[in-house]
Design brief:
By secondary structure, the chain is of the alpha+beta class. The protein has helices at residues 24-31, 45-61, and strands spanning 2-3, 6-7, 12-16, 35-39, 65-68, 73-77. The protein has a single domain, classed as Translation Initiation Factor IF3. It contains 2 helices and 6 strands.
Length: 86
């Protein structure tokens, strides 16, 4: 993808969270313009909801997007990445 700053090659980071404290890894990856696949299978349901709420707010603040792609799996995309569901 061509940007005003040169060519950007999309990268994907996989983050498996069990606790809210681990969600910061996903935020840092999105800030670095990586797409993040967030896996919450191992998290307690209440903790998973807190993680989703936190990351939804963080992705919105960074002008990104967050989409559910599975039962406990989400895709967080940075600004400029279009996500299409097929």
């Amino acid at each position: 993808m061509e940007t005003p700053f040169g060519v950007w090659l999309p990268q994907v980071t996989i983050v498996r969270c069990r606790r809210l404290e681990e969600a910061q890894l996903a935020v840092e990856a999105v800030r670095s313009r990586h797409c993040v696949v967030l896996q919450l299978e191992d998290a307690d349901p209440a903790e998973a909801q807190r993680i989703v709420d936190f990351l939804c707010g963080a992705s919105s603040a960074l002008d990104g997007s967050m989409d559910r792609i599975g039962d406990a799996t989400f895709l967080i995309a940075p600004m400029g990445v279009n996500v299409r569901q097929g």
